[in-house]
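RECORD CONTENTS
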Amino acid sequence: MHPAPAADVAEVLLLAYGLTPRERDVLALVVAGLPSRAIAGELHITTATVQDHLKSVFAKTGVRSRRELVAVVLGL
């Protein structure tokens, strides 16, 4: 049995946890390993906005760190 692709898992998280499309964008870039500054540049938002989105994602998914979030998305 193989783990589901991250994009599929991210889609399930979007639906299951009620993530917004922008929170999903941030989530995908976190899973790709980008730091907040790079995510901000990629999405043309401030690093503070990235942090706000991450706080919301953490609250909705019940995790407390990027590491936990990535583990949930990758099914680890």
Remarks:
- The CA atoms of residues 14 and 23 lie 8 Å apart.
- The chain is about 70% helix and 0% strand.
- The two ends are 13 Å apart (CA to CA).
- The chain has one domain: 6-74.
